[in-house]
Amino acid sequence: MTHVIVTGASSGIGRALVREYIGAGAAVTAVARRAALLQELVDELGSAVHPVVADLSDPAQATAWLPAAVAACGPVDVLVNNAGVQIVARTIDVSIAQMRALFEVDLLTPLALIQAVLPEMLARDRGAIVNLASVAALAPTPGMTHYSGAKAGLGAASEVLRGELRDTGVTVVTVYPGPVDTPMARAAYDIVPPTAAVKLLPEGVPAVLAHRIRRAVERRRARIIYPWVYTLTRHTPAITRFMMDRFTPLPPPRAPAA
Ligand SMILES: NC(=O)c1ccc[n+]([C@@H]2O[C@H](COP(=O)([O-])OP(=O)(O)OC[C@H]3O[C@@H](n4cnc5c(N)ncnc54)[C@H](OP(=O)(O)O)[C@@H]3O)[C@@H](O)[C@H]2O)c1
Fold first, then answer.
1. Distance 68 CA to ligand 1 centre (A)
2. In this structure, what are the phi and psi dihedrals at residue 174, rounded to the nearest 5 degrees?
3. Average pLDDT per run of 10 along the chain, which is 258 residues long?
4. Which letter does DSSP use for residue 107 in this model?
5. CATH architecture of the domain with residue range 3-247
6. Is 0.90 topped by the overall pTM?
7. 12 in ligand 1 pocket by Cβ < 6 Å?
């Protein structure tokens, strides 16, 4: 049975990925902090879901669960680095602790998990690594300094890893979601409501993206940019930069301490 690891499985795109891969007959190691939400997936989808409760912002927990997951479900066929956190705030209002936690979850743990699964994938000459970057990697976004930096780092690492592994059976898919209807996107809109222009653009659906990710792995595609309209950011980087710097609405400054 194919063994798929999905980090950030308790919500949004990750939860949709668990449903997608279980529907395709895989065994899924589902990783997140909220045990109750992972248990809901087990109750809904059955014993092919293997819940793992881990805090991926803690380097000591980032990969420690992996040997047990391999013992339970076999060698990893697909690693989906999906877990992510977003901070929508002015840079000056972000604490160093918040910044470090974001970089652990969004960049360093994904890279550590890649290091951990790659030797066995190369030994078997098969496997897939999927990295959830963001359109914020292609169009770094004012008000999301650290998120954009981490996602740009993950996107770049993912793209070059694909090239490095070109002569092997291991494939790498980089995913650049634009707005997709999940708790993360809704939380961002609570802080900076979408502009009239953004409201005109399509918003992605987690289940649709999950299906596209599974298909992209099967077809060994290099990347997904979803919804499609956001591919423009990749093809017009100078115009995109100008627009982002000039027109992106900013989060409100934090209220001064009383
Ligand atoms: N939705 C969008 O518009 C959008 C756009 C671009 C990119 N993305 C990327 O797509 C991925 C999925 O996002 P989403 O929209 O589905 O977000 P979401 O609904 O907020 O889900 C985030 C997932 O990450 C997990 N997570 C967060 N911090 C964690 C930690 N310290 N340890 C373990 N797991 C942690 C959460 O689980 P627990 O809280 O239970 O730990 C949750 O399952 C992220 O990488 C995000 O950056 C999303």
1. 23
2. -105, 130
3. 98 98 98 98 98 98 98 98 98 98 98 98 98 98 98 98 98 98 96 89 96 98 97 96 95 82
4. I
5. 3-Layer(aba) Sandwich (3.40)
6. yes
7. yes
